[in-house]
Write a structure and sequence with these properties.
Pfam families: Glycos_transf_2 (PF00535). This protein has helices spanning about 25-35, 55-60, 75-85, 105-115, 155-160, 200-210, 235, 240-250; strands at about 15-20, 40-50, 65-70, 90-95, 100, 120-130, 130, 135-145, 145-155, 170, 175-180, 215-225, 255-260. The protein is α/β, with parallel strands linked by helices and about 280 residues long.
């Protein structure tokens, strides 16, 4: 008697790219949250710019994980660029090691891109020590005298909820975002930045290239910041030097931001809206 056994091959459309640098306690919690709360088939790519035996042992416990390692710290932009250059799936979710996945978050993001083919990137809010970081960023242009300037303003999670928004088009999101692989034919993370201005630069490239970003109020990640065990480019980079790199590249002067702070969720407010929907 012969028996045909059909093998079920699960299609993997998602890579989760994590950047880390000498924080095994953080990356461990991040990876465990992915295992616990991500139902979609996925592969994991870790770029670890300060590898330790503790980290290597940890990675061996995840059969779907590939690591690219370095002996000394590299910049976040360089690490993200390595992720972008080494994926083969249609979608990539970028995470820092101090982020933890919340139940349903990843599937909501993938489902949104599946249904909205015109959108290229989606992001959400960060829950940090009981408060929420901003949901989305807007880039504002102007002049001071003859000098062209740019500054950020922010949409808070409170404002999005009070307006009953299910999504909103923005110019930038948090460092935790889901992107289509194909956008990296047009934009890339610039490894010349040390620690500062790299995502400002990346999202400004996206705006220039008409890459469509949406922020989703029902997408939340837990952010658990902690100090690094070793000096990284966060400690050794010069924000003034990175700002000058931004100016030299774009010919525009970043002067700061309006808003953007940790806030608790508040009671819904009533807004006077000029467009009404049944």
């Amino acid at each position: 008697m012969s028996e045909n056994i059909a093998k079920v091959v699960m299609t993997v459309n998602l890579t989760i790219g994590i950047i880390t640098c000498g924080r095994p306690d953080r990356i461990s919690k991040c990876l465990n949250s992915i295992s616990k709360y991500t139902d979609l088939a996925h592969s994991i790519l870790v770029v670890d710019s300060k590898i330790t035996s503790e980290n290597l042992g940890l990675y061996q416990g995840f059969p779907n994980l590939t690591s690219i390692t370095f002996d000394s710290p590299i910049s976040p932009a360089a690490a993200r660029a390595i992720v972008a250059q080494n994926i083969s799936t249609p979608y990539v979710l970028f995470l820092d090691d101090d982020i933890q996945i919340v139940q349903g978050t990843v599937s909501k993001m993938v489902e949104y891109l599946d249904k909205n083919l015109e959108v290229d990137i989606v992001g959400g809010a960060w829950l940090e020590r009981g408060k929420y970081r901003e949901l989305g960023q807007f880039f504002n242009f102007g002049t001071i005298g003859d000098r062209p300037i740019i500054y950020k303003s922010f949409l808070s999670l409170n404002e999005a909820i009070n307006l009953n928004l299910s999504s909103v088009r923005v110019d930038g999101v948090q460092a935790t975002f889901l992107a289509r692989k194909k956008i990296f034919d047009r934009v890339q993370f610039d490894p010349r930045y040390g620690f500062y201005f790299e995502l400002f630069d990346f999202f400004l490239q996206c705006k220039q290239q008409n890459i469509y970003l949406k922020a989703l109020p029902d997408v939340i990640f837990e952010h658990n910041p902690t100090t690094y065990r070793i000096p990284t480019l966060r400690q050794t980079s010069d924000s003034k030097s990175d700002r000058q790199k931004f100016i030299d590249k774009w010919g525009i002067y970043p002067i700061g931001s309006l808003g953007g702070r940790l806030v608790k969720l508040s009671e819904p407010k009533k807004f006077r809206l000029f467009h009404f929907f049944k």
